[in-house]
Write the structure tokens for this entry.
Amino acid sequence: MASWSEFAADEPRLADGIRHLMQQYGPGFGYLATVRADGGPRVHPVSPVITDDGLYCFVVDSPKRRDLERDGRYALHSFPPEDSDDEAYVAGQARPVTDQARVARLAEIGRAAPQVDWRLFEFTVDVAMLARRGDVGTVRPGEGTGRPAVQVWLDPRAADAASPVSGGAAVGVPDRRSAHGGRGAHRAAA
């Protein structure tokens, strides 16, 4: 599981694009998907905090927080831009931040209200995706927008951890070690 800073060091342009979409309206804004106790999905709007050190989210006492405390799997999707159909997505594991100095620093950056019962989570990055479709206004009604330009980064350590057999990818998980350059697999489609 890569930290945001490890992912950004490996793919800085992709990380910048994702950060831009997550923070396009000022503070971070996106949709957080968590796993309910019955295994079903749950989706919530959140305000992620992205720094050079990591990807974080302050989560109030709620079903989504209980989901993250019980099963740290998450997916975070950007809010749609007004002028395009671009989208960003990251997924991985959420873990509580217990270092009080880091919590205080991020509470100041994220303007987290001190009187609210929130908990800070750091999100690791197993997969990151950025899809660029271009400006909405450049396509006439009735015309397709064509295929988006999609960039995907996969953490090779996540594939190794999911693999039931040493040296192979798990069923349904692409072999993330087959990338050309960089620590993680990176695919671009036009």
